[in-house]
Amino acid sequence: MSVNTSFTEPWSGYLANAEWPSTPRLVLLALINIPLLSIVLNVLYQMLPRSSSRPPVVFHWIPFFGSAAAYGKDPIEFFTKCREKYGNVFTFILLGRRITVTLGPQGNDFVLGGKHTVLAAEDVYAPLTNPIFGKDVVYDCPNESLMEQKRFVKVSLTVDKFRSYIGMIDDEVSEFLDHDPSFRIYQMNDINEWGSFFVLNTLSEITILTAARTLQGSEIRNNMNKGFAQLYSDLDHGFTPLHWMFQNLPLASYRKRDAAHAKMSEFYQQILRDRRASQSGHEEDDVMSSLMKQHYRDGRPLRDHEIAHILIALLMAGQHTSSSSISWAMLHIADRPDIQEALYEEQVKFFGTPDGGLRDVVYEEIRQLPVLDAAIRETLRMHPPIHSIMRKARSDIPVPPTLGAPSEDNVYVVPKGDIVLASPIISQVDPQTWQDARTWEPTRWYDADGVAAQANKQYEEGVKVDFGFGLVSKGTVSPYLPFGAGRHRCIGEQFAYVQVSMIIIALIRKLEFRLEEEFPQPDFSVDEFEIYVYLAIATMSSSLPAVFVLVIILGLM
Ligand code: HEM
């Protein structure tokens, strides 16, 4: 008893003398400390022992928000740093989702060559793309149907079509240079003065005009200036991480996205009805006319809304990819007068006429222009437009030990529900593979036995499989994969190549370029408003465990 007394007396004395805050103050204090407590709990949670077969988790302070800031700011730097610390396989938290990254050629092969039954693209991309592309196409249908839809489109991307597109693209660029206000000095034919233009805006416009004229058809091209561009822009603003996380929020961008989709879908379907009524559908030489003639394997023709939605998907899939590639190529060309000169000399060598002019390009000749070919390949090596390719694990998947393993007799297992992510750009700029990896150096592609040529050979000549839309590389271990691999490999590659080549040729023939400012760095940053939304959600959701702990503490008192 005496022992008890000697212990309790000093404590009870302290409690009696302490100044305790009133209840409202206590609640306020607790509220202020919730974020702090949630951070502490999150850090403690990360220190708990975990199964050694789980890939290491990238350390992060804020629960739910995870590594969103570092990944969103510069994914390449983020992946590179994580690779140095954790190896080729690691998991990071992105806005409440677990993303397991597998890097390097083996990592690309793991994700891109994975079986569809266990690694599904639609489970990741659908919330973002379905409201934009629309019903029953791409990721809003079984994967087998997507494979058929890719076959339908490929049928319309033939060499014959490409031959006719060459002249159309050339015409569009010439028309643009002749009329756009940014090229006033060119229009005045003043060869002694420099004009200037915003590279990305201008080349985005040229990209959409050339895609509309070739793939999308004359009705779309003719309506480009009459509201179609606004619809495109409203749809495009629905392509953000926020729209990926939440399919529907009561925000203007969501309302505009949905209204634009409805209008665009109806616009295409009206063209289909008009073409049928006037019997002109079969005379046009575009993707729509080709889709009107196709059938699924069970004999069913495509329904109008499916044709409309495939065309919307193609418009969106081809726009940023091509326009960013052309923009980076032109920036580098402007920055390297030697390559610019070589590109022009190449035009003179191949297409020069006795009277000092340049004749029209023929489709088959495009791939035989080594300088142009190297400039495009090098641009796609350093600036592939898609830095993260994702799939969702539908079951637990063991990671091949060659990619990384916790120990000799154990392997990592990606748990069911994780998103797996490959980032081919990491192997495309890996200094272990490429000399001066971060330098744009087209000449590296000239050497037929060099690293670049070998990488390209691996890309094009590996094991081929037909997933339903023609033979493609199965999922490849090449360090160069700008158009992806496996069943989701790009079907726009040849078209993009024609488009990018012809736009560069048309510009190089008519103008000389130099940079007005410093060479720009890639800007991956997300809209500021979105960051606030993520932080608010992070605070709310991560507060729950902290609130729970606080309630217990307060209850105990
Ligand atoms: C898929 C790159 C242009 C249509 C892909 C993928 C990549 C890619 C990396 C694979 C995505 C994945 O595995 O999740 C590029 C680049 C382009 C380009 C670098 C231009 C320089 C185009 C164009 C079109 C297009 C012009 C349309 C005309 C598609 C389609 C898919 C695809 C339909 C298939 C999606 C799937 O199966 O899930 N592209 N693309 N792309 N791309 Fe492209």
From TrEMBL:
Q: Which terms under GO biological process does the entry name?
A: methylation
This protein's UniProt keywords: Heme, Hydrogen ion transport, Ion transport, Iron, Membrane, Metal-binding, Methyltransferase, Monooxygenase, Oxidoreductase, Transferase, Transmembrane, Transmembrane helix, Transport
Residue ranges crossing the lipid bilayer per the database entry: 26-45, 531-557
- Report the subcellular localization: Membrane
SUPFAM superfamilies xrefs: Cytochrome P450 (SSF48264)
InterPro entries (alphabetical)? ATPase_V0-cplx_e1/e2_su, CYP450_sterol_14alpha_dmase, Cyt_P450, Cyt_P450_CS, Cyt_P450_E_grp-IV, Cyt_P450_sf
Write down the CDD domains for this protein, in alphabetical order: CYP51-like (cd11042)
Under PANTHER family, the record lists:
24-HYDROXYCHOLESTEROL 7-ALPHA-HYDROXYLASE, CYTOCHROME P450 FAMILY 7
Please state what the protein is called: Lanosterol 14-alpha demethylase
**Lineage in the entry?**
Eukaryota, Fungi, Dikarya, Basidiomycota, Agaricomycotina
